[in-house]
Amino acid sequence: MSEMGIEQPRGSEAWTARGSTDDLAPRSNGNGLTQTRVERRARLLGWFSIGLGLAQLVVPGRLSRAIGLGDDRRKRSTMFTVGVREVAAGVGILSRQHPVGWLWMRVLGDVMDLGLLQSAARSRGAKKLRIGAAMAGVVGVSLLDVVTSRQLRRLAARGEEVAVGRPIRIVKTITVNQPPEEVYRFWRNLENLPRFMSNVEAVRVLDDRRSHWRVKGPAGKTVEWDAEIVDDRENRLIAWQSLENADVSNRGMVWFRRAPGARGTEIRLELEYDPPGGRVGATVAKLFGREPGQQANADLRRFKQVMEVGEVVQSDASLSRRPHPARPPERPVGNGEGGAQ
């Protein structure tokens, strides 16, 4: 049974299990390696690399002073270059299911950093205690990189599936003050989806099961794919997945359940996809505030507005630079019943 008391859709069991909290259960290969622990450590090293790299890019002089190197144009330039390398390595780790090469890139970078720190320690006026502490930190992280890389290699050699850089998976819920029949009917007309999904430019229905999607991608690019409804239960569930050769491989499902206390409909949206630009693009987008989960939240809030008000109510920030009461857009989105025209 699902969390909402509905049996799982046909053909989706493997996907739902793969994306559930069962992922977090340790998976031992019988030889002393706990696969999930290694994956987690690799992801942690990836985010550490990105965090350190961003600090080196944003405040190179301050960081250089903090570790005892001093601050001048050459040192800031060196720190900035090292930051670029760290961000690239972190994104590489987080965007690959098996990032052994990127972890070894970090090790090589650590060796270079140790050389720079050792050279700086011999300079006149160097703050040797701070530089020594920085060198100890670099050695410690480098050892973690080496150990994690070797463990990932051993797991791969034994045929274990490693998933450090996983597809994006999103689970979001919302309650809409409309009965399940109305909510299901609106969502089932797939041409309605661009009315509240801000990145979806158009959905063209091809037949009762198949549809063609056109979606905004990164850097103004448009991505397209055909999708098929794989399970459809009136007033309860819609599940779909992209077809072969899609620009963006994806699948999803939306559940509808009558909310207790006659409060309308509880909606649970589950999405899994490889984002435009790959996992690298998703990682970079997350760094700069375009996190997919936040986008899904915003889309569901717009859906709630369309169902309850009949149109999307835009925020103050989107309408004016000065505060004022929220109001609908000048051109109504539609009447909330039919598909987008």
Description:
This protein has 341 residues and is α+β, with helices and mostly antiparallel strands. Helix content is 45%, strand content 17%. It has ten helices and seven strands. It has helices at residues 13-19, 35-58, 60-66, 73-94, 100-121, 128-157, 180-188, 278-287, 292-309, 316-319; strands spanning 168-176, 200-205, 210-216, 222-233, 237-242, 250-258, 265-273. The chain is elongated and about 75 Å long. The model is unreliable at 1-32, 316-321 and 331-341 (pLDDT under 50).
Brief sketch in words of this structure:
The protein has helices spanning 13-19, 35-58, 60-66, 73-94, 100-121, 128-157, 180-188, 278-287, 292-309, 316-319; strands at residues 168-176, 200-205, 210-216, 222-233, 237-242, 250-258, 265-273. By secondary structure, it is α+β, with helices and mostly antiparallel strands. Helix 2 (35-58) packs across helix 3 and helix 2 (35-58) runs antiparallel to helix 4 (73-94).
Output the keywords.
single chain; 341 residues; alpha+beta; seven-stranded antiparallel β-sheet; 10 helices; disordered N terminus; disordered C terminus
